[in-house]
Design brief:
213 residues, alpha/beta, six-stranded mixed beta sheet
């Protein structure tokens, strides 16, 4: 493509501009499959809805429940980006989806990018997932969900509570824990699925648009 484009630029710049537009149009048509994974109950399905700008009770939203709701691999199109499909994966480490066979049974190879969700610091299975993703040459983000609950719990137990300090400590602990597992510069986002405009949700959208799309 590069050699053809250079040659065409020399012969006919207007035709070369047409080639570029056709190439960009084809890129826009390529489906981008995003795997949303992590342990059961971490807020994966609510994240799928929140990332698409939906509430859990909106029409077309992924079904959310108290118990394990996601038992199969389910696709949800993004309303803004026509070529982006968010795949809500079952929670790793359940009786149905054991850690040892999870990667094979969910078909990790089919996904182009991953978001690993945890509602605490990142645990053994989260680390396994990240390393398996690295093995197949794909990229991923770490998301610490339910940060609103983390702040609420800290406020109830600390008379000197400071939200910014709690967020900074939580972020530092997450990053340090991942670095100790061999991830040199992990991208960690702290967010609440019910506060789309707060914490790291806007930054997540910005990074995703810049780095993935």
């Amino acid at each position: 493509m590069d050699q053809q484009l250079r040659a065409q630029m020399n012969r006919d710049p207007i035709a070369a501009a047409g080639m570029i537009n056709q190439y960009l149009a084809r890129i826009d048509d390529i489906q981008l499959n995003i795997g949303i994974t992590g342990k059961s109950g971490s807020g994966k399905t609510s994240f799928v809805n929140a990332f698409r700008g939906m509430k859990n009770n909106d029409q077309g939203a992924a079904l959310v429940g108290v118990n394990e709701t996601t038992k199969t691999v389910n696709p949800y199109p993004h309303p803004k980006y026509a070529n982006v499909i968010l795949w809500d994966l079952p929670g790793i480490g359940t009786n149905r989806w054991k850690a040892e066979t999870y990667v094979k049974n969910t078909g990790f190879e089919r996904f182009d990018f991953f978001i690993i969700i945890s509602d605490t610091h990142f645990l053994e299975n989260d680390i396994k997932l990240a390393k398996e993703i690295q093995k197949i040459g794909k990229r991923f983000y770490f998301v610490h969900s339910k940060i609103d609950q983390t702040l609420k719990n800290e406020e109830e137990n600390d008379r000197n509570f400071n939200a910014e300090r709690t967020l900074a400590v939580t972020r530092r602990r997450c990053i340090q824990g991942l670095q100790e597992q061999g991830f040199e510069q992990p991208q960690v986002f702290l967010l609440s699925n019910f506060e789309h405009q707060h914490h790291d949700f806007p930054k997540l959208h910005e990074n995703f648009t810049r780095e993935v799309l």
